[in-house]
Amino acid sequence: MQNINIKDLSEYVGQQITLKGWVYNKRASGKIKFVVLRDGTGYLQCVYFKGNVSPEVFELADKLGQESSIEVTGMIKDEKRAPGGFEMDGTDLKIISESHDYPITPKDHGIEFLMDNRHLWLRSSKQVAILRIRHRIIKAIRDFFDGKGFILMDAPILTPSAVEGTSTLFETEYFDLGKAYLTQSGQLYAEAGAMALGKVYTFGPTFRAEKSKTRRHLTEFWMVEPEVAFADLNDNMDLAEEFLEFIVQSVIKDMADELKILERNTELLKNVKRPLPRISYDEAVEILKKNGIDFQWGNDLGGTDETVISNQFDRPVMVHRYPSEVKAFYMKRDPQNEKLALAVDVLAPEGYGEIIGGSQREDNLDFLLERIKEHNLPIEAFEWYLDLRKYGSVPHSGFGLGLERTVSWICGLDHLREAIPFPRLIYRKTP
Ligand code: 4AD
Ligand code: MG
User: Fold this and answer.
1) Is the model more confident about 397 or about 163?
2) Which neighbouring-strand residues pair with 22?
3) Is the CB of 354 under 6 A from ligand 1?
4) pLDDT by residue (tens digit) across 300-332?
5) By alpha-carbon position, which residue is closest to atom 29 of ligand 1?
6) What angle separates helix 403-411 from helix 125-147, to the nearest 10 degrees?
7) Whole-structure pTM value
8) Average pLDDT, the chain
9) Residues with Cβ < 8 Å from 30, sequence gap 6 or more?
10) How far apart are CA 359 and CA 341, in angstroms?
11) In this structure, which residues have their CB less than 5 angstroms from ion ligand 2?
């Protein structure tokens, strides 16, 4: 039998149907009992009039504990005032499995309690809305690249070396072969893929043993990384802005109910359209100085710096050409100025900070060798990567978008921990 979902109720107005789900809420007033059912796709108020149902069913409606799983039967009616726009005139009610003393009640709970009960907290309306939006964003990401002829190519999780600096590696013993590391980024493998397929993207979990205990850092997060052969920094920025527009506009179009549950003000999100402003790192430093920030040229931008810069714009801003000293070894130097890397970071508005980091890659074998030495990286581990520069090297570029940073920004969350089902943080690995 095909179960009916609450989100499809418009097709069933005037019909007698049965739905399955969980008790979200209930209340009674004299001869009427109200049971709010949730099924993961929406909420439905079921109304039981004393005269319309058997005494057993009427009694049962009162006994239901929050989160009991139930089956309700009745007539679907239009009801403009009800959440979702429909109501059920109930005729029957069956318990599938009882629930008593559900730990998460409508009252306020502390964040640590909620995090300890994350497996149950996921059932709350805000969390369901976030997970649904996360899913829509993932779909937009895949639709975007698939629609442009990119090939999804999975990168390994266990790797022999660092990509984004050695200080944030999770390591593990790997049989007789010494240590293996959880990947920080699929990029180097995506570069090999781009040389094989032209345009690829990797999309998977990545890991950083971040010592930082901030609202913007997870130790395990999902990253999508496009990589394109025969593309320079400008092409990379063109791709990034089109990509962001596509994601945000897809969510606005399809997820209005969820954004409403999250009380997300979507005015600024609506602005996420091409062209996005592009400023150089030098211009970013000027903005910081004008805003009274004592910033030293050559430093990386910190969280507060990013907020000050992005506050000058009504949509995400791309900052390009950072000092090469603060950027990764694989980034190509700017031929106009050797001190700069052909890098780009995209900063989200409203203080959400960096959501995309990318660059044009160093495609010259000798320069790349120098960089690997400068960064004290083990050359043996990069032999294969250097081969990409030996055999038909081409200009190429790519970037990485952090999924949770994007979910957090679009949903208007104040911490990344709610943007992923089971967050891994420096101080938390359960549930
Ligand atoms: O800027 P990052 O470190 O860039 C790379 O890893 C490149 N290899 C990407 C590439 O060019 N293919 O990370 C990219 C994005 C950041 O902009 C941010 O959105 C996210 O990944 N990110 C994190 N998200 C959550 N927790 C963390 N600890 C993150 N570190 C990076
Ligand atoms: Mg970065």
Assistant:
1) 397
2) 38, 69
3) yes
4) 999 999 999 999 999 999 999 999 999 999 999
5) 217
6) 120
7) 0.97
8) 96
9) none
10) 8
11) 357
Q: Which amino acid is at 45?
A: Q
Chain CA centroid to CA 248, Å: 12
Where exactly are the structural domains of the chain? Answer: 6-97, 118-419
Closest CA to 348 of 321, 314, 322: 314
Q: How many residues belong to the chain?
A: 431
Of 344, 295, 300, 349, the C-alpha closest to 320 is: 344
Given pLDDT bands bounded at 50, 70 and 90, which one contains residue 293?
very high
From its phi and psi, is residue 221 left (phi > 0), alpha (psi between -120 and 50) or beta? beta
**In ligand 1, which atom is closest to the CA atom of 168?**
28
The DSSP-derived string for 332-375 is PEETTEEEEEEEEEEEETTTTEEEEEEEEBP--HHHHHHHHHHT
Reported as a single tens digit per residue, the pLDDT across 377-424 is: 999 999 999 999 999 999 999 999 999 999 999 999 999 999 999 999
Tell me how far the alpha carbon of residue 97 lies from the centroid of ligand 2, in angstroms: 48
Q: Which residue has the tokens 């899913």?
A: 135
Q: What pLDDT score does 125 carry?
A: 95
Q: Residue 239 phi/psi, 5° resolution?
A: -65, -45
| Nearest residue to 310 via CA among 347, 362, 274 | 347
Give the closest residue (by CA) to ligand 1 atom 27.
217
If you measure from the C-alpha of residue 356 to the centroid of ligand 2, how many angstroms do you get, rounded to a whole number? 7
Which SS3 state, helix, strand or coil, does residue 318 take?
Answer: strand
Sheet holding 171-173, edge to edge: 158-159, 179-182, 171-173
Distance 34 CA to ligand 1 centre (A): 47
CA distance 409 to 406: 5
Contacts of 29 (CB under 8 A, 6+ apart): none
- Give the residue, by CA position, lying nearest to ligand 1 atom 24: 402
Q: Which two tokens stand for residue 286?
A: 């000027």
Please name the residue that has the structure tokens 């429909």. Answer: 86
Q: What is the CATH number of domain 6-97?
A: 2.40.50.140
For residue 356, the CA-to-ligand 1 centroid distance in Å is: 7
Whether pLDDT at 2 is above 90: no
Q: How far is 237 from 345, CA to CA, in rounded Å?
A: 9
Pick the CATH number of 118-419 from 3.40.50.300, 3.10.50.40, 3.10.20.30, 3.30.930.10: 3.30.930.10
Buried/exposed code over 196-225 (b: 16+ C-beta within 10 A; e: otherwise): eebbbbbbbebbbebeeeeebbbbbbbbbb
